[in-house]
């Protein structure tokens, strides 16, 4: 009985590991350079699937290089895909050092930076 139990536990562990593959896709993205070209904002909305870990979220990053990962400046989560039709955020450079991120009002703000590098960041819901 104990050998059968051990074999069943090993089988369950293997099946759990096989089912933990990454199931995500970028469903929307944008790249917006600052007026002087020194900074770039990279936005990606990711839809993640799977049992117990389904999510729809947007990450906004500020980078000093086009190919750089950058640093997270805004993290949003969304309830449904139709709520973010047309894009979950609007990126507006007010000038070289001031950035405005407008997001769909139904989104939940998980994180927002107010300053990164030499850039002040304003985050607010989009007006209708």
Oligomer: single chain
| Distance from first to last alpha carbon | 65 Å
Mean pLDDT: 87
Uncertain ranges: none
Number of strands: 9
- Compressed to H and E, one letter per element, the order equals HEEEEEEEEE
Helix/strand-derived category reads mainly beta
Number of domains: 1
Q: Which helices and strands occur, and which strands form pairs?
A:
Blueprint: H1 2-18, E1 24-33, E2 40-48, E3 55-63, E4 71-77, E5 89-95, E6 98-103, E7 108-112, E8 115-116, E9 119-125
Protein model, in words:
By secondary structure, the chain is mostly beta strands. The chain has one domain (24-125). The chain is built from one helix and nine strands; from the N terminus they run H-E-E-E-E-E-E-E-E-E. It has one helix at residues 2-18, and strands at 24-33, 40-48, 55-63, 71-77, 89-95, 98-103, 108-112, 115-116, 119-125. Strands 1-2-3-4-7 form a five-stranded antiparallel β-sheet, with no helix packed on it. Strands 5-6-9-8 form a four-stranded mixed β-sheet, with no helix packed on it. Strand 8 (115-116) and strand 9 (119-125) form a beta hairpin. The protein is elongated. The protein starts with a helix and ends with a strand.
Provide keyphrases for this structure.
elongated; five-stranded antiparallel sheet; 128 residues; mainly beta; four-stranded mixed sheet
In brief:
By secondary structure, this protein is mainly beta.
């Amino acid at each position: 009985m104990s050998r059968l139990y051990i074999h069943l536990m090993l089988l369950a562990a293997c099946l759990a590991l096989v089912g933990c593959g990454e199931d995500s896709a970028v469903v929307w993205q944008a790249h917006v350079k600052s007026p002087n070209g020194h900074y770039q904002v990279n936005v990606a909305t990711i839809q993640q699937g799977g049992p117990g870990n389904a999510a729809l979220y947007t990450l906004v990053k500020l980078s000093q290089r086009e190919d750089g990962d950058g640093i997270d400046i805004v993290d949003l989560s969304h309830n449904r895909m139709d709520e973010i039709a047309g894009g979950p955020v609007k990126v507006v450079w007010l000038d070289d050092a001031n950035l405005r991120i407008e997001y769909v009002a139904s989104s939940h703000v998980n994180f927002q930076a107010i300053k990164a590098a030499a850039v002040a960041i304003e985050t607010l819901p989009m007006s209708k």
